[in-house]
Amino acid sequence: MNFLTKIITASALTFSLANATPHTLDNAHSEVGFKVKHLMITNVKGEFKSYTADIDFDHKTKTFNKLNAKIETKSVDTGIEKRDNHLKSEDFFLSEKYPLMTFNMKSYAADGDEGEMTGDLTIRGVTKEVKLEVEDLGTVKDFEGNNRVGFTLKGKINRIDFGLKWNKALEFGGIAVDETVKLEIEIEAVEK
């Protein structure tokens, strides 16, 4: 890369970051969801009810400068209390010792109304880099004239990588809970 190209790239990045503005998460229109195969034949869906996020987004370039989130592991909800209590236990999240899981964005590559977000996900004190696809990115002015952004984050993680190792072998072969967890997160945020 020649010197002039470096200067232009740095200037564009600086301009983009300067236009990124803080946004407040709209929890009433957001959801941190996941699904995982049970007995390898059906998906069990769940979500986390309590979470926060710091988001800096540039409406003109449709790019993120920052997306950092904190999710309370004890807020896991699959609709069945016994299963939720098991997920909060030592077999999975160990919520008493690790009350939060976090995601800290490291980079974002925009592609029109979509893109790829890379960041560090920490669960049970273990941090791994993950890639999340950004889909259906849209911006709008709401009834009060505020800029809003909405998007879907999708990705996959291997729960074993984060120490969520519980499983049970089945008599006919296979396992009770798949190691792959699919993430499906809906976010809406309003410019501060």
Please tell me how large the radius of gyration is: 19 Å
Oligomeric state of shown chains: single chain
SSE ordering: HEEEEEEHEEEEE
| CATH homologous group name | Lipid/polyisoprenoid-binding, YceI-like
Number of domains: 1
How helix-rich are the residues, as a percent range? 10-25%
Number of helices: 2
Q: What is the distance, rounded to the nearest whole angstrom, between the alpha carbons of the first and last residues?
A: 37 Å
Strand order of the largest sheet: 1-4-5-7-8-9-10-11
| CATH topological fold name | Lipocalin
Task: Note the overall shape.
Answer: elongated
Name of the CATH class: Mainly Beta
* Biggest sheet record: 8 strands, antiparallel, barrel
Query: Beta-strand level of the residues, as a percent range?
Result: over 45%
CATH structural architecture = Beta Barrel
Poorly predicted residue ranges:
3-17
Strands, helices and their partners?
Blueprint lengths: L2 H17 L1 E5 L5 E8 L3 E7 L2 E8 L4 E10 L3 E2 L3 H8 L11 E12 L2 E10 L2 E16 L5 E12 L18 E15 L1
Antiparallel strand pairs: 1-4, 1-11, 2-3, 2-11, 3-6, 4-5, 5-7, 7-8, 8-9, 9-10, 10-11
Description:
The chain has 192 residues and is mostly beta strands. The relative contact order is 0.19. The protein starts with a helix and ends with a strand. It has a single domain, classed as Lipocalin (Beta Barrel). It contains two helices and eleven strands; from the N terminus they run αββββββαβββββ. Strand 9 and strand 10 (147-158) form a beta hairpin. The chain has helices spanning 3-19, 81-88; strands at 21-25, 31-38, 42-48, 51-58, 63-72, 76-77, 100-111, 114-123, 126-141, 147-158, 177-191.
